[in-house]
Amino acid sequence: MAISPSPPPSSAPFLVQPFPPPPQPQGTTRFVLISDTHGHPPPASLMPEGDVLIHAGDLGRWGRQDVLDGAIGWLEALPYPVKLVIAGNHDSLLDPSLPAYHAPPASSVSKNRSRLLGPSARKANIHYLEYTSFTFRARPSGREWTVWGSPGSPAYGSPAFQYTSQQAEGVYASLPPGVDILLTHSPPLGPTPLDQTSRGVHAGCKVLARKVRELEVGPWLHVFGHIHEGWG
Using the 8-state DSSP alphabet, how is residue 153 labeled? Predict the structure, then answer.
């Protein structure tokens, strides 16, 4: 999914360029990438055609159930044959490990997780990843892809799925060595501007950056979100 080279106006937060995308070459797999929709997903008419939708987290906003319900409904209705989804630091309604003073009711978290992990999600081609892997074919005769997804990000601000520097090694311990697609809410630490805040701070994860460098094979694609100013 190509992004507009200049920041879009607030009234049009999702722009695809070019739109529609060029015809897909025969025998290829087209990935559509999006993140941090925060309850404002683009209308289906602005979503490019493709084989695999990847959402890199922050479906919701500040623990609002109506926002998360709308985001899941939007995902369910999209026509992609494969939809790979992770949570992010705003998705407290999906995080069962939050301390009591931050946590929503356990029954609410359980209901939301069941909706993304249960039969209705599978029927809608949704595969929710939480420090887990998934292997799939986008087309019956196509190649096999393995994706690993993590909702985690370094501790700062909204608390869901966040980890301290001491916990970072454990968070990425299950990252498989031969993953084709790496899907993380947090970006790795620099040196690109994709983890850079408006204050010029590189807010990506140092441990994640090292883990990616240490992979003997892959990833062919690393998709992340979290730092809004670093979109692209």
Answer: E
In a domain, 20, yes or no: no
- Give how many domains the chain has, as a whole number: 1
Task: Quickly state the pLDDT bin for 190 (edges 50, 70, 90).
Answer: confident
| 16 has a pLDDT exceeding 70 | no
Is 128 within the bounds of a domain?
Answer: yes
Cα dist. 162→90, 103, 153 in Å?
10, 13, 5
Confidence (pLDDT) at 39: 87
> 0.70 exceeded by the pTM?
yes
Q: Report the CATH number at residue 223.
A: 3.60.21.10
Parent domain of 137: 31-230
How does pLDDT run across 163-175, given as a tens digit for each residue? 998 999 999 998 9
Residue 39 CA: distances (Å) to CA of 1, 29, 66, 93: 19, 28, 9, 13
Question: In sequence order, what DSSP letters do the residues of 16-31 get, joined into one string?
Answer: BSSSSPPPPPTT---E
In a domain, 19, yes or no: no
- Both structure tokens of 51: 């084989």
**Strand (E) positions, 15-89?**
31-34, 52-55, 82-85
pLDDT digits (tens, 9 = 90+) for 214-231: 887 779 999 998 766 667
